[in-house]
């Protein structure tokens, strides 16, 4: 397969629930392929789309009362399970209110074993056993710049050789994110940057989007797993990353925050030897695929 064919290939992921490989139904796929694969599209991204004002403008549109009209068609088109919602659909005053909706607690049970780590969000998850020696990051041959991503060279050195899980949320997903472990959480530190898509259609061409985009960094000191980094990454049309927790003691599965409209991701990084990622994450990552799973499900265990 040529490099261009790899760039443009359909996005496949392994569905942990169904036990099969599926093809992603990409929201706004035509625009994404044009924006990141066409020279004029890439120019448009550089001039306007990646700019903060563009995402703020789009977020403003999704906050407008008339955006409510988009909610029911979206639910029907993408088969979103309204029975999970904490509130009736008619109570959402805008598309954004629907987008960052809360769910019933029973909709996302959290694995209670203290020796396990859970996914911080719904979505498609890429498991990297050793962030320094990964063979694939969405496409073969791309290296991850941990120091640039973390925004602190000294802190990055503490996670050299560690494991990482990139949890990618599509617009069709539940868009609140949670703590993957229990511990003492620091205040959020915002790392400024641009806002480009974090879809594999963009990351296949330019992995540096992950450390050039706006990011939010939290350190969790866990009795079971040591120091853990939890970092949200903003993306195009994400109106904001909104933290909802107070620094201090946090429980696994507790609310950490939510994204306004758009696709985005949460990245969790563990120190070397702290965890063993689940087998399906590693098997699928070796094939260049993510694993679809939901918040609260196990993604790793404490290493022996």
Automatic annotation (TrEMBL):
<dbReference type="GO" id="GO:0004609">
    <property type="term" value="F:phosphatidylserine decarboxylase activity"/>
</dbReference>
<keyword id="KW-0865">Zymogen</keyword>
<keyword id="KW-1208">Phospholipid metabolism</keyword>
<keyword id="KW-0456">Lyase</keyword>
<dbReference type="InterPro" id="IPR003817">
    <property type="entry name" value="PS_Dcarbxylase"/>
</dbReference>
<keyword id="KW-0670">Pyruvate</keyword>
<dbReference type="Pfam" id="PF02666">
    <property type="entry name" value="PS_Dcarbxylase"/>
</dbReference>
<protein>
    <recommendedName>
        <fullName>phosphatidylserine decarboxylase</fullName>
        <ecNumber>4.1.1.65</ecNumber>
    </recommendedName>
</protein>
<keyword id="KW-0444">Lipid biosynthesis</keyword>
<dbReference type="InterPro" id="IPR033177">
    <property type="entry name" value="PSD-B"/>
</dbReference>
<keyword id="KW-0210">Decarboxylase</keyword>
<comment type="pathway">
    <text>Lipid metabolism.</text>
</comment>
<keyword id="KW-0594">Phospholipid biosynthesis</keyword>
<keyword id="KW-0443">Lipid metabolism</keyword>
<comment type="pathway">
    <text>Phospholipid metabolism; phosphatidylethanolamine biosynthesis.</text>
</comment>
């Amino acid at each position: 397969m040529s490099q261009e064919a790899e760039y443009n290939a359909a996005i496949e992921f392994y569905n942990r629930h169904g036990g099969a490989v599926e093809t992603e139904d990409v929201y706004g796929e035509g625009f994404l392929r044009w924006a990141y694969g066409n020279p004029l599209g890439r120019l448009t991204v550089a001039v306007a789309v990646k700019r903060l004002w563009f995402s703020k403008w789009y977020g403003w549109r999704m906050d407008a009362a008339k955006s409510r009209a988009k909610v029911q068609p979206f639910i029907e088109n993408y088969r979103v399970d309204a029975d999970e919602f904490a509130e009736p659909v008619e109570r959402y005053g805008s598309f954004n209110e629907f987008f960052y909706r809360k769910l019933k607690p029973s909709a996302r049970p959290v694995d209670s074993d203290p020796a396990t780590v859970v996914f911080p969000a719904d979505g498609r998850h890429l498991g990297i056993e050793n962030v320094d020696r990964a063979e694939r990051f969405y496409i073969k041959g791309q290296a991850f710049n941990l120091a640039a991503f973390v925004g602190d060279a000294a802190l990055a050195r503490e996670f050299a050789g560690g494991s990482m899980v990139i949890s990618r949320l599509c617009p069709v997903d539940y868009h609140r994110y949670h703590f993957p472990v229990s511990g003492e959480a620091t205040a959020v530190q915002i790392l400024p940057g641009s806002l480009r898509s974090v879809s594999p259609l963009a990351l296949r061409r330019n992995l540096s989007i992950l450390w050039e985009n706006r990011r939010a960094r939290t350190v969790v000191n866990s009795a079971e797993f040591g120091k853990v980094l939890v970092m949200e990454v903003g993306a195009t049309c994400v109106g904001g990353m909104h933290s909802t927790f107070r620094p201090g003691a946090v429980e696994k599965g507790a609310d950490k925050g939510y994204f306004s409209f758009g696709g985005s991701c949460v990245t969790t990084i563990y120190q070397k030897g702290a965890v063993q990622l689940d087998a399906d994450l590693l098997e699928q990552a070796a094939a260049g695929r993510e694993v679809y799973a939901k918040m609260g499900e196990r993604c790793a265990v404490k290493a022996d």
